Amino acid sequence: MPVEVPFNQTEINEREKRIEQSLAKFKDLLATRFNQEELSKINTALNLMLEIHLPQKDRADGKPFIQHPLEVASKVIEIGDKLTPDLVISALLHDSIEDMPEVIFAKRANKKFPNHNYKLTINEYLKKNYLQIFRDWSFREIDQEYGSRVSYYLDNLTNHDFDSLTEELPGLSLEEKNALKNGLYADHVKDIIKDPDLCLLKYADFSSNIDLSSLAPESEKYLKLKRKYASVILIFIDQLKKIERNHQLFDRKEMIIADLKNVYEKQYKSSSNV
């Protein structure tokens, strides 16, 4: 992934301040819901998340990347009806294997060879040819460190490498490849959110990603995300209408559906792909 390089000391200081404020707010929230033993486990995942995502380029809205997993984990804590440390850990690490599996792979390698300090750099060749190997071993490391439930959540939250798949398909135009990729993503989401825990985790992530208000209208990024998420908003609404009382989001489903409909009406309804 790209590395964010601040232009001057003022920018660096402001960035660090935003990160410190976000971390402090999140830790205060954690302390209201978990005991000391649970906090210790969650904090190990928090430290891993910081190691993985601090070097990443800022998000399109200009926020340091780590604010996204912190926001997702905070939302899980705030709206989940059956909250567990595993859900919070999974929220913190939900982008880790998809974006930066080399960091987790390197940690596993260091355990195997404690006299070495692996600093893996994945260039485009390695990404294309060995990404799945890094991901597979990262899942093993997560399973060992945090248990099978966290590994299960992350396995389902990690998007498949649809880019590489569509690149290899012959005879399709760029528009057709993008349509196929978006369709595969939509099918993936539709499948996983049948699980109440995954529905909570994915909604917490998705609700953050679908807000396009910080992007320039008609920009390439804006249009790309609009095409990607438009149909998935409707999938979420349809699934939430069907959930039963024991679901993680049952008590808040009407509010969530209303919020999704509002975003759809204001930012997505005009999409030619809907």
Notes on the protein architecture:
It contains 13 helices and no strands. With 274 residues, it is mainly alpha-helical. α1 (9-31) runs parallel beside α3, α3 packs across α11 (196-209) and α4 (85-92) crosses α8 (148-157). Mean pLDDT is 89; it is low at 1-6.
Provide a short characterization of the protein structure.
The protein has a domain at 159-269. Helices cover 69% and strands 0% of the residues.
- By secondary-structure content and strand pairing, the structural class works out as mainly alpha
Strand proportion, as a percent range, falls in under 5%
Low-confidence stretches: 1-6
Count of helical stretches:
13
Total beta strands: 0
Secondary-structure element string: HHHHHHHHHHHHH
Rg from alpha-carbon coordinates: 19 Å
What value does the average pLDDT take? 89
Largest sheet: none
Helix content: 55-70%
* Intertermini distance: 31 Å
Overall geometry: globular
